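Students often ask why inverse folding is considered easier than folding. One informal answer: many sequences map to the same fold, so there is more than one right answer. In these notes we will look at a single instance of the problem. The structure comes first.
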């Protein structure tokens, strides 16, 4: 019987046959992959023990090829979305979570409330990251991977409001509109009316719809084409919501806008399969959802 051989096998290559500049460029890519927020050229130089001028030449080459971008806000170098497209054809959910989690953490620090991130994968709205605050309400039933109750949650409504009609209909063919509290909307036509308001205002609310005495504020995150990709939200007690909502709503919208900017900088399109499934071109999505 033939023993299967590994797909990738490191071969013994004389060092004289190796191209040093390629090796160094790959080391830079590996380093940047570990730093979601990015690094300066000087930091790359110090970490890898390379001359600063060499690092600049390699970074400029990688940027020209589209593998590295320079964040216009922080002026730090970071990986673009091209690595994911090259290997997988699409960015992975792990890549998105890695890049968007800093925005969730920043929102938690800014508001002092627990913050959340959900991703739309084309079929499900998946809770993907949580940044807890010791001073705020933590919705104990929500854990990473949770997919239910999105019709009652600010996270879910921020995404549902921006789905094409075909995708919205398909979603509710497989998801029941369960009543979690007396405030939960369980009628699809009534929910559609609420989603119109979400699109108009740029944010979504959950006012004791998922849990009694808990309110949430959410906002949509769009990909590089303007199509819906994710959402970000905070949760807090009703008493604090009534007092602080006018201050918190702009902060949630700003966090979503910053996350959307990251998607644009990195060139992420997400989820491509869902947009093909429902006949939504990226060009049309960009016009419709901006």
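Output (designed amino acids):
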């Amino acid at each position: 019987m033939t023993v299967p051989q590994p797909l990738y096998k490191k071969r013994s290559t004389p060092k004289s046959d190796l191209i040093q500049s390629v090796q160094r460029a790959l080391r830079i890519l590996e380093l940047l992959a570990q730093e979601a927020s990015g690094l300066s050229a000087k930091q790359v130089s110090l970490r890898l023990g390379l001359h600063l001028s060499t690092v600049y030449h390699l970074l400029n080459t990688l940027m020209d090829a589209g593998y590295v971008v320079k964040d216009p806000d922080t002026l730090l170098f970071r990986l673009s979305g091209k690595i994911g497209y090259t290997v997988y054809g699409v960015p992975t959910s792990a890549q998105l979570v890695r890049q968007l989690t800093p925005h969730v953490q920043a929102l938690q620090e800014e508001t002092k409330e627990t913050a959340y991130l959900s991703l739309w994968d084309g079929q499900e709205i998946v809770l993907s990251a949580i940044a807890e605050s010791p001073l705020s309400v933590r919705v104990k039933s929500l854990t990473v991977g949770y997919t239910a109750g999105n019709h009652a949650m600010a996270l879910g409504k921020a995404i549902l409001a921006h789905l094409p009609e075909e995708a919205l209909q398909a979603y509710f063919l497989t998801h029941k509109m369960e009543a979690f509290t007396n405030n939960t909307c369980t009628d699809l036509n009534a929910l559609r009316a609420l989603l119109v308001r979400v699109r108009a205002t740029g944010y979504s609310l959950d006012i004791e719809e998922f849990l009694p005495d808990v309110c949430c504020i959410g906002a949509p995150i769009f990909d590089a084409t303007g199509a819906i990709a994710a959402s970000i939200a905070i949760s807090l007690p009703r008493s604090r919501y009534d007092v602080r909502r006018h201050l918190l709503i702009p902060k949630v919208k700003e966090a979503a806008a910053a996350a959307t900017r990251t998607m644009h900088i990195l060139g992420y399109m997400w989820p491509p399969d869902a947009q093909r499934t429902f006949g939504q071109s990226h060009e049309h999505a960009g016009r419709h959802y901006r």
